[in-house]
Amino acid sequence: MSALLSRVHSWVAEAPWLALVMLVGVAAIFWWVLRSQGVPEWSARKAPWLRVVALALALPALFFILLWGMRVTLARTEYDFRRQHGRVSEANLASVESIWGRPHVQRDLTVYHTYEVPVTEEVRDQFGRIVTRTRMETREAPQNSITRTRGDVTLTRSERQKGTARYPGFTLDAAFDYTVRNFADRRTDAHFTFPLSPGQTMFDGFTVRVNGEDMSSRLLFDPYAVTWTLPMNPGQVDEVAVAYHSRGLQRFYYQVSDVRELRDFLLVLRLPDIPPRDVNYPEGCITPTTRRAEGNGSLLEWRLDRALTTRGMGIALPQPAQPGAQVARVLGTAWRGGMLLLVTVVLTAIALGAGFHPLRLLLLGAVFVGEFMLMAAISDYVPSYWLAWALAALPAIGAAYLILGGRRAPFPLYWLPVVFMGLYPLLALPREVAPSLLLGMDVLTVLYLAVLGILALRRTPEAPPLPPVGAEENP
Hints:
This protein has 10 helices and 20 strands. By secondary structure, it is an alpha+beta fold. An 8-stranded mixed sheet has the order 10-9-13-7-4-16-18-17, with no helix packed on it. Strands 3-2-8-12-11 form a 5-stranded antiparallel sheet, with no helix packed on it. Helix content is 40%, strand content 29%. The protein has helices at residues 2-14, 16-36, 42-45, 49-84, 90-99, 325-351, 358-378, 385-403, 411-423, 434-459; strands spanning 104-107, 110-124, 130-140, 146-157, 160-162, 165-167, 169-181, 188-195, 203-210, 213-214, 220-221, 225-232, 237-249, 251-255, 261-262, 265-271, 290-294, 297-304, 307-308, 312-316. Strand 17 and strand 18 form a beta hairpin. It folds into 2 domains: 2-85 and 324-459, no CATH class; 103-316, Immunoglobulin-like (Sandwich). The radius of gyration is 37 Å and the shape is rod-shaped.
């Protein structure tokens, strides 16, 4: 019982407007049953009290059970659909990272200079005599020797699929040019370190050139960096060019390794297939100094000079549209449309004096649920969501039209299936404004029912008699 009450509470909390409309519908059915049995004349007609009260309680209960069954069936359909479509999991993400690559973090080049000086010291030899020996000692020549940085990175989306979901992968063409100068007043050994993105699976076409000369024979590789050492005379300037092709997942990040003054720094990030509206930045990233559209994509520039920062520069890729994402969003809100449909049909029929038969309501609920089950079933076999929607919604609207009486049905009853079976599912598609659209439809439904109720109270129509229990409805 506590579990049932908890579900009812969460249901009411999720859509309070809908819960209010549903309670009004249940109360209206109870009142309509009593009125259709001639309750004001019970004493004169000696009506069977027990039968009337039982019927007045049973029909609202059956109506509530119908709503609840619709909610449970659609929720189960949504759960099964999401499990088979676009189900992102940590295990699959880890698998994609191990195969394709991790988030790409490129740290900038570091250079430090050393030189050797002779150091004379007195030591005792093996006979205990004090002798003088000279050894070479390595010392560092501190300086910020990178005077110019140019980075040109082209990032192209390459979505990866694992299981039932897609993940935001990309390929990367990177080229970095550095100008390095020895500011020391002596000859030094310049030690270059170019970090590699941690855990990356592949670097293709990796080249290092200094003053145009290929440095392949001098490079030392480890899992975290590429290093090399070159002698530099006082005031010597070297042009260092590093280029490679790689790939990654989720985000690209260029990180300034050490606290130093960035001089004449320019990083250009080209995004040929990511428009400016989809550009997002990783946490802790400084925004570009220039951002503009370039063709169907974007171009970002970070231009700094005499700047101090340890923040990075880069982009977080937009999440790809998961398979069946539109259908899944529609399934997630379909139950609201179904409940509004049944409640408004009942209240409209009562207010217009047409009455209703429980069997028709049951068939209408079954058709509504069948519409979305059919949409979920055929979405993988049709080229677009709109075709799946049309193949499911149009037959459902036609069946609802016949169930409600066809041409003999009052005009409002004719349009309710069109609104809640055809239009209502489409409100869930624009993700940013879907909650507002759905709330707006709830409010319009409440206003419609309020106006309908006011008109019905003014008219006070006679309620049609309720068919006897067990009797079939005449066509």
